[in-house]
Amino acid sequence: MRIYDELSHNYRMHVKSRTQKHAMYPDRFYVPDAKVPWQLPFPDYKPVEFNAPVVLDRNTPWADPPDISLIHRPLTSFEGAILFSKEGIPLNPFGRTGIKGRGVLGKWGANFAADAVITTIHPQTHLFRVLAISRKDTGESAFPGGMVDPGEDVFQTRNRELLEELSFNISLVNPVYDEVIFKGYVDDPRNTDNAWLETTAIHTHIDFSVAESLELEAGDDAVGFRWTDVTAESIRNFYASHGLYLLRAMKVFVERRGAVIDKEAQAIFSSMHR
Ligand code: RP5
């Protein structure tokens, strides 16, 4: 299967949200592909409920109260109207995950994040490179990013996370391009039936000379970073659904800017449909 079709299929079926999990989580109840949508009956479905102690702690400022009736903000999603259980609990818009509760996520329903997709193109190889961090929790390559704090817009979150995770002050850089390229569900291993990640991914393309001049240092949730060549293999190895957003970002960029890119990227893009 071609990489874009493979990643799109896995994303729509939220394979990682059903088969991977945070280290603290109990095993997920097995949800076969055919039983993912809530609309399809699954009378034997008995997922364990899990809420991390920090999420239940009243002194955790970023966590909602366990009693959902005490929440007064509207529960929203980039994916449209949220379904609710009979008890008034929000249901994951992509379907069953095999775990109930909020896991390690603070908010009932969507937990909103912002991600920085920073790319450049090597002038000799014409390979796309993307700035990837190694996540502290899983060790996987991921975009720098994090949760949107109250009162922040997504650009402020993106800028703050770049400073915290890479000591990168993006406001000092003159980008070729800086645009929101994705808003929606993230197939994240922390997702549960009742709490999940949604993100706004912002694609920033910078000249190679600018990329080379950056003095970056890993910090906070990032235990390392590197400029990663974008190949089919590196795209597949990205955390959550970050590889899919990266593919989309690069394709849109190439179409708009007519950039010279390497043969592998051309082959990948020619297999993508809008
Ligand atoms: C991902 O989790 C989002 O796309 C974002 O990269 C990240 C936010 O969570 P933390 O990095 O703050 O744990 O799903």
Note down, in words, how this protein is organized.
The model has no long low-confidence stretch (mean pLDDT 93). This protein has helices at residues 3-12, 15-19, 53-56, 154-166, 208-213, 232-236, 242-257, 263-270; strands spanning 48-51, 83-84, 90-91, 99-103, 109-121, 128-135, 141-142, 145-147, 177-185, 195-205, 222-229. It is 24% helix and 24% strand. It is globular. The chain is of the alpha+beta class and 274 residues long. Strands 5, 6, 7, 8, 9, 10 and 11 form a 7-stranded mixed sheet that branches. The protein has a two-stranded parallel ribbon with strand order 1-4.
Mean pLDDT across every amino acid position: 93
The hetero compounds bound to this protein are: 5-O-phosphono-beta-D-ribofuranose
The Rg value, from CA coordinates, equals: 19 Å
Number of DSSP strands? 11
Helix content: 10-25%
Q: Strand percentage, roughly?
A: 15-25%
- The SSE order reads HHEHEEEEEEEHEEHEHHH
- Alpha plus pi helix count: 8
Compact description:
With 274 residues, the chain is α+β, with helices and mostly antiparallel strands. The chain is built from eight helices and eleven strands.
Q: Which terms would index this structure?
A:
274 residues, alpha+beta, 7-stranded mixed sheet, two-stranded parallel sheet, 24% strand, globular, binds 5-O-phosphono-beta-D-ribofuranose
